Automatic annotation (TrEMBL):
Name assigned to this protein: ferric-chelate reductase (NADPH)
UniProt membrane topology term: Multi-pass membrane protein
Gene Ontology CC: plasma membrane
One GO term of the biological process aspect: iron ion transport
InterPro entries for the chain: FAD-bd_8, FAD-bd_FR_type, Fe3_Rdtase_TM_dom, Fe_red_NAD-bd_6, Ferric/Cupric_Reductase, FNR_nucleotide-bd, Riboflavin_synthase-like_b-brl
CDD domains reported for this sequence: NOX_Duox_like_FAD_NADP (cd06186)
Chief location category: membrane
Organism lineage string: Eukaryota, Fungi, Dikarya, Basidiomycota, Agaricomycotina
Record-annotated membrane-spanning stretches: 20-38, 91-109, 121-141
Organism: Saitozyma podzolica
Amino acid sequence: MIGCSFYRIDLLAENAYLRFANQIGIMAFAQTPLVFLLASKSNPISSLTGITYQKLNYLHRASGRACIFASWIHALLWTPEVWWAGHFKRWYIIWGLVAIFGFTGLWATSFRWIRRAAFEFFLVAHILLSVAFLVGALFHWQRMAYWIWPAVAIWAFDRLLRVVKTLRINFPWRRADGQCTLEMVGSDVIRLTARRRGLKWSAGQHFFLAAPGVAGSKHETHPFSAANVPSDEGDVEAVFLIRAHRGFTQRLRDAMTSDTDTSIPVFLEGPYGTAHSLEHFSTVLLVAGGTGVTFVLSHFLALLQSARSGRSPIRLLHLVWHVRHGSDVTWIAPLLNQAAKEHPDIDVRVEVFVTRTKVADEPWPGEVQTPGVETPPTVTSHGDHLSGRSSQTTLVDPAESRPLLETIPTPTTGLSRSAQEIVSFKPGRADLCTILRRDVARSEGQVNVTVCGPEALMSSARTAVREVNTPEAARRGQVEVEFFEETVGS
Ligand SMILES: Cc1cc2nc3c(=O)[nH]c(=O)nc-3n(C[C@H](O)[C@H](O)[C@H](O)COP(=O)(O)OP(=O)(O)OC[C@H]3O[C@@H](n4cnc5c(N)ncnc54)[C@H](O)[C@@H]3O)c2cc1C
């Protein structure tokens, strides 16, 4: 930007710095449509490149900062001139100040800690300050309006598309009217099931949910990944797992009158996010922590569908999920039961790592080795989950048939018998490096690792892929490992 601002400037000429100030101001104007495009949820860059709008948001912030920087250089270089000319009360200067302080306010209210602490404040401030910036910039220098109107059009189109998407899914001709079932499946997790006619989405995509009855404002919406994929034509059920925090999600939980509530209307808008298919991999290792399971579970179910219909060459499908308590499996039990009933002739494993057991109080792998997890034990389950009785899962050293670790009490999980055959419980955190090494050794073709969860888990998965997918291993003929990660933070 700075380089372009020197275009055709004779540095020795009188007032060359003012010419530079004007040109860098024009550069700031020229960034505006790009800044708005990169913030849009349905932008063509995502469609063309496959990069999700959440990841493009990084470029939105970068181009926004560049624009502010250029605007301030423009303003500071002109300040002495405007001062001597006594133009501070002229309208074009006042509008310029509205624009620059509006834009600076956008930056100042967007820090991560503000978004984490008060997302709704950030959102409202972003809308109001964007309007201030656009109006200010338009009237500051109307000859540059051809940069501002495209930005306005991009923003308006994005909002319009959101309204259309909401109406298309929810309203009268769908006969849905916000109907859904909310179930309390853990102390702070709600399972929301919404049945909508003809609803379509792909694995890994998310919807914005609005519950005007419990939201702070009528327009408040929050993103949640669908935990399943549509199976049939006609009425389709979308399943979401919602962890209650302090805002909208807590109000939703508080509004529930019983553990299963069908009285709160919830409207869906979407789907959003770029769908990336894992169909062409021979082995897929899906790694999740907590409610991050929604993202990977939809891939898990989509891959089973593809394998059943012969669209995918997948031979090994492995889900590794970290939960605080064994009973958290209840969240996804109906989906696993369905999957286990129809599962095709491929190797399907679900390993649930329970992090809050007496033997699980250890740091992430790499810091300390966890003996029972390092050497995979066989798992024997006793008890009948469906009958509602608690069961015990014992980890046994295969060589010596003696318990390696304390038993993990596995409370009622709602898993059917066929689902229990593919699900095993382990204490502590997974040694992802060892797990990946084994999956790669058994794989006949390309391997994919997809992870969604807390930053520590994603970093652990990245390290595992780096350690296994080395150039030396590739030279030895090891199959290629592809990595994909998804964040669900703000
Ligand atoms: C693409 C995507 C998919 C997600 N999928 C799931 C999921 O499947 N299950 C799940 O439990 N959570 C998911 N989340 C997170 C979920 O959106 C937030 O937990 C929820 O919006 C919190 O609302 P709150 O008002 O109760 O939050 P608060 O208590 O106000 O804040 C808790 C955290 O949520 C963030 N947050 C609040 N509002 C939003 C918002 N509108 N957009 C993004 N982040 C927000 C805050 O910055 C903060 O970090 C997903 C987030 C994204 C971006």
